[in-house]
Amino acid sequence: MESVNKYGIEGDDEVAMAELVRGHGHLWNIIFGYVNSMALKCAAELGIADEIHRHGQPLPLSVLLTKLSIPPSRADSFRRLMRLLVHSGLFASSTARDEEEEAYALTPISASFLVTSKADNMSPFVLTILDPILVDPGHCLSRWFTSSAEPPSAFDLFHGKSIFELTGNNPEFNVNYNLGLAADARFMAKLILKQCGNDVFRGLRSLVDVGGGTGVLAIAIADAFPQIKCAVFDLPHVVSSLQGNPTVAAIAGNMFEFVPPADAVILKWILHDWNDEDCVRILKNCKKAIPAKEEGGKVIIIEMVTQLENEEDGNNHDETTKAQLLLDVYVRAVYPGKERSEVEWKSIFIAAGFSDYTISPISGLRSLIQLFY
Fold first, then answer.
1. DSSP states of 190-251
2. 206-210 and 229-234: which strand pairing?
3. b or e along 338-350 (b: 16 or more beta carbons within 10 Å of the residue's beta carbon)?
4. Phi then psi dihedrals of residue 32, to 5 deg
5. Which residue in 59, 125, 185, 372 could disulfide with 216, CB within 3.0 to 4.6 Å?
6. How many other C-beta atoms can be found within 10 angstroms of the C-beta atom of residue 158?
């Protein structure tokens, strides 16, 4: 058995020091990881991707500074920001042979998701998730864990109200919040319709999007399947902007009280906001709203189904696993809900009275679940 050296690690001093150096670097990466998020937010706020896209070719630093109205005194700091964004894979840099300064180009990520004129633009989602209203509660996670009171989330503890109460009382944040969710919904609608649209929606006559926000998903479904009568069901302050929309109907209400009847009910990224008991309540109302499987009834759920390998030792560093773990803790900080494995989802489905379900992966972070009774 190897002895424990002066660093408290088994093995010789040289190996132990190398381990400490690696560990120190890894710790720093975690500590300063939030800077990546802030740099991304800064890029979205400045519209860096838009300026490069409009230029149509790599944009020299000096020109980019001018287009963004950044003063010369900030030039070196901005160059360092771009260096980080390049390292993160959001932009690419090059230096022409006859030029001394760097020029910046889009990468597939920024070209697809940060150019505001593109259909898949995710800038509103970036700005929503990184809004101080949603970020600040993370600072009181430890206080929430040790609190003798029972606020359902760190968000409630920090703000003194739930996120749903805050959006109802803060019109500006409500607009931004729903724009952010709509950007994500737009991309997910594209994936859903392409990968499993015919299998899921063909033959339906009516569909209600529960918690559908600004109606992006319901509108996409209605456009792809004109025979389906689509409606968006959400709180009054959410669906107010949809009143009079020619594509989808807007229905105001509370999903804990009832769900409007339809052949199918769809819930996109709704149930992870709530605890198990509330999920069962919501799904029981959905069950009352739809006909049985033999008559074509179904509940469609778009959620994460966690598949975390090596949960015992936490050594899986796959990007999807990391994203799932990050989102799981994020949800616990902001909402009273959680991300769930198939086993956890199944127990909720059974408790709500459903006898059958199927799961179809859409991406590494989302799956489409169909429930029947």
1. HHHHHHHHHHHHTT-SEEEEET-TTSHHHHHHHHH-TTSEEEEEE-HHHHGGGTT-SSSEEE
2. parallel
3. bbbeeeebeebbe
4. -95, 10
5. 185
6. 20
Look up residue 58 and give its DSSP letter: P
For 324-366, how does the pLDDT look when each residue is reduced to its tens digit (9 = 90+)? 999 999 999 999 999 999 999 999 999 999 999 999 999 878 9
What are the CA-CA distances from residue 294 to residues 291, 297, 325 (Å)? 8, 7, 38
268: exposed, middle or buried (Cβ count in 10 Å: 0-12, 13-18, 19+): buried
Helices 34-46 and 48-55: crossing angle in degrees, nearest 10, is: 50
Tell me the DSSP string of 138-162. Answer: GGGHHHHHT-SS--SSHHHHHHSS-
Give CA–CA dist 43/270, Å, rounded: 29
> Which member of 26, 87, 237, 272 is catalytic?
272
Burial-class residue 64 by CB neighbours within 10 Å (0-12, 13-18, 19+). Answer: buried
Contact in structure between 162 and 156 (CB atoms under 8 Å): yes
Return the structure tokens found at 272.
């992870």
- Out of 19-28, 47-56, 309-318, the most confident range is 47-56
Give residue 7's pLDDT. Answer: 55
Predicted confidence (pLDDT) per residue in 288-307, tens digit: 999 999 999 999 999 999 98
What residues contact residue 114 under an 8 Å CB cut-off, 6+ apart?
43, 44, 48, 49, 50, 90, 106, 121, 122, 123, 126
Structural contact between residues 339 and 275, judged by C-beta atoms closer than 8 angstroms? no
Paired tokens of 291: 């006909």
> Cβ–Cβ contacts within 10 Å for residue 149, how many?
7
> Can 26 be counted among the known catalytic residues?
no
Half-sphere exposure of 335 (CA within 13 A, CB side): 19
User: What mean pLDDT is reported for the chain?
Assistant: 92
Residues 224, 303: Cα–Cα separation, whole Å: 22
Closest of 87, 81, 6, 95 to residue 45, by C-alpha: 81
The token pair that represents 133 in the structure block = 């209203």
In this structure, the chain runs to a length of 373
